[in-house]
Design brief:
The complex is a heterodimer. Chain A is of the alpha+beta class. Chain A has 3 helices and 4 strands; from the N terminus they run E-H-E-E-H-E-H. In chain A, a hairpin with a 2-residue loop joins strand 2 and strand 3. The radius of gyration of chain A is 11 Å and the shape is globular. Classes of the chains: A alpha+beta, B alpha/beta.
């Protein structure tokens, strides 16, 4: 299993469009992917879960990927987040 | 049931002119109560199957809506639907529904309703107002699933059998994307504003609309006869026979006038003594471009950037959103020029439901270029979209709320950076994109010569300029009548601005409501404006004025008007002149041609 710490950089945080991109990216991998903020941990392939994290800019998240393609999955998701979801 | 005694008049905001008369179709979100049924043993498997079938139908509906939205309304509208599609297949939504049916043996409707309600409640508890509003998306999905389970077709606005007037609490992009344009006569909605989605759709479809009615959906029943008066912002429910006759006359008069004016819309806008005037349109979404062209606009003089933000509250458009919107607009208007005004929230424009913009309602606050220069990151994104789109047509960029040359210098530097950045990423960019300043603050009007050093063109924003000069906030009913485009102070200030611009040979246009009132336009013609920009619907009337009044006449009228000592005197004098030029009254006083948001 891989754990990575992520920081949300884009201005609007994990709002609907960013969440949709996150979920689509995560869903491309076979590994189980979760993200956690504070005490809440959600399925990274669930848009509802990701939205309910309500993570604004500056939030620190823990990403966990577990499975056959965990390295690639964690790298792809981390890149999307650090690229600010291509937004601003 | 339609009785004369049961007639009701509802007041709202008229956002698209004209009169529509027809039977009401309520776009209701309310469903009949969902019963809780205990399944007989052995029925669980077939109930789960029923659920899967319903999910499949909704999935198909949303896919079709997304496709249409993408085609008709652009990528940003489609992304809203896309997020909903992801929710529909989200295990946090469908798994609990399946588990509920399986474990508790209840009917699918009950399981959907319970799960949907619980989920909406969880969204409702989030402190972030934007995320909290996603509970509407959950409600919409629940609603679609319940209808599908009940064997009801979803609201199929794409296949209406009769002509209807659409009544709703609000219209969502997913509703209007599928609209049967031939059969919807008008809109009336409870919420909404002049720049809301419903308003823009109505104007682009050229059908009457009234928004902000508060409780229309409660007062009106399916099939009620309804009159929508988009000019006066009124909806008459179950009108009496006399009222109905009156509105049929108004409707006929409106369409006759539109017809006559439209037939003349291709004629050149030139005065009888040979002076051409460019008539451009003020619009706010690419879908309105064809309306502008139909009404004879030969360019866009004011494109309001706010719509893209209002489409998706809470999420700022990205560079691609801006780029594709402006490019679409330029291509729709090609080969004509397009002037895009950069973001101007605040003042009379409603701020979107974005918490970062909530302080934007003050007339004298953080508006226009001031806000852009504070939120530089956001502004840079818009500028990159602009310089890239500029490669696809004749694009000009207009800065709102300018009060000094430093603002222009700063923005020009940012534009250079945006151009370099876009180029660095391998994008084609416009070699040069003319930068202009709006003259809408008296300070700017006093330093036209200085602004001319830094700007490539100037555009008078008459609404704000008049408000600030006369110290009248039009939102305040007790002083709104003091807003006078023909006040002597306004006439003098315009004289100064026009002369200063002419001395520096800088192009000067006028955009704003004033230009769309035939009376005011006739007087202002005397300043020899070469470019006027207004609501598309006003163009044919104003063109008629220009084609009928020689420039020399307009100059005489202005000269005489400037000797008068009150706005009312000027108004009466101008009216007499107008009547003299139009004894047949082809030009009808422009009450239904105005717009309030330049």
């Amino acid at each position: 299993m891989i754990r990575k710490e992520l920081v949300i950089l884009n201005k609007l945080g994990l709002h609907a469009r960013a969440a949709a991109k996150f979920v689509k990216c995560a869903s491309c991998f076979a590994s189980e992917i979760t993200i956690a903020k504070d005490a809440i941990k959600v399925n990274g392939k669930s848009i509802i879960g990701v939205l309910l994290l309500a993570a604004p800019r500056g939030s620190q998240l823990i990403l966990e990927a577990d499975g056959s393609d965990e390295e690639a999955a964690a790298a792809a998701v981390a890149a999307l987040v650090s690229d600010r979801f291509g937004e601003d | 049931m339609s009785t004369d005694a049961g007639s009701v008049i509802l007041k709202g905001i008229g956002v698209s002119p004209g009169v529509a008369i027809g039977p009401a179709l309520l776009l209701e979100r309310q469903l009949s109560p969902v019963p809780r049924l205990d399944l007989k043993p052995g029925r669980v498997a077939s109930e789960l199957e029923r659920l899967e079938e319903a999910l499949g139908r909704v999935r198909g509906d949303l896919a079709r809506i997304e496709e249409t939205a993408d085609r008709e309304l652009g990528a940003s509208a489609a992304q809203i639907i896309d997020a909903q599609r992801l929710m529909l297949d989200d295990s946090s939504f469908v798994d609990p529904i399946r588990a509920h049916i399986r474990d508790q043996g209840h009917n699918a409707e009950w399981a959907v309703k319970e799960t949907g309600a619980r989920l909406a409640e969880r969204f409702g508890q989030i402190s972030d107002s934007y995320i909290r509003q996603r509970s509407n998306d959950v409600d919409d999905l629940t609603d679609r699933l319940l209808r599908s389970l009940a064997g009801e077709a979803p609201f199929r606005l794409d296949s209406l059998t009769i002509e209807v007037v659409l009544i709703a609490s609000d219209l969502a992009p997913s509703d209007t994307a599928m609209l049967d344009r031939e059969r919807v006569l008008g809109f009336a909605t409870d919420s909404g504003s002049r720049t809301s989605h419903t308003a823009i759709m109505a104007r682009s479809l050229n059908i009457p609309a009234v928004v902000g009615l508060h409780d229309a959906a409660e007062q009106i029943e399916d099939g009620d006869c309804v009159v929508i008066d988009g000019n006066e912002g009124r909806v008459i429910v179950r009108p009496s026979v006399t009222t109905l006759a009156e509105y049929r006359d108004k409707q006929a008069a409106h369409s006759d006038r539109e017809e006559v004016l439209r037939r003349t819309s291709h004629l050149p806008a030139r005065t009888p003594d040979g002076h051409p005037v460019r008539l451009y349109a003020n619009i706010e979404a690419p879908v309105e471009a064809h309306v502008a062209r139909e009404h004879g606009a030969t360019g866009i003089g004011l494109y309001r950037s706010e719509f893209l933000h209002l489409q998706q509250p809470g999420s700022a458009p990205d560079e691609e959103d801006y780029y594709s919107e402006y490019r679409e607009l330029l291509e729709a208007m090609s080969p004509h020029p397009v002037t895009v005004r950069t973001l101007d929230f605040g003042g009379e424009k409603e701020a979107p439901e974005d918490p970062t913009l909530h302080d934007a309602s003050s007339l004298l606050g953080l508006r226009g270029v001031r806000r852009s220069l504070r939120d530089r990151e956001t502004f840079a994104v818009q500028l990159r979209g602009l310089v890239r789109a500029g490669a696809h047509g004749e694009l000009r960029v207009l800065l709102p709320f300018v009060t000094g040359v430093e603002e222009l210098r700063e923005v020009r530097a940012m534009m250079d950076e945006a151009r370099e950045a876009a180029r660095g990423q391998g994008h084609a960019v416009a070699e040069r994109t003319p930068l202009g300043a709006m003259i809408e603050v008296p300070a700017a009007a006093m330093i036209v010569d200085q602004l001319a050093d830094e700007a490539e063109f100037l555009s008078i924003g008459s609404n704000d300029l008049i408000q600030f000069l006369l110290a009248v906030d039009r939102r305040d009913d007790s002083v709104a009548h003091l807003y006078e485009p023909l006040h002597p102070a306004v006439l003098r200030l315009l004289r100064e601005v026009v002369d200063a611009a002419a001395r520096r040979s800088i192009p000067l246009s006028l955009c704003g409501e004033a230009a769309s009132d035939p009376l005011v336009a006739m007087v202002y013609m005397g300043y020899r404006f070469e470019e006027l920009s207004m609501a598309p619907r006003a163009i044919p009337v104003i063109k008629n004025v220009i084609r009928s009044v020689p420039l020399s006449e307009a100059e005489r009228i202005l000269q005489q008007a400037m000797l008068l000592t009150s706005g009312r005197e000027v108004q009466e004098f101008a009216l007499a002149e107008l009547m003299a030029h139009f004894p047949d009254g082809l030009v009808v006083a422009g009450s239904d041609l105005r717009e309030s948001n330049a």
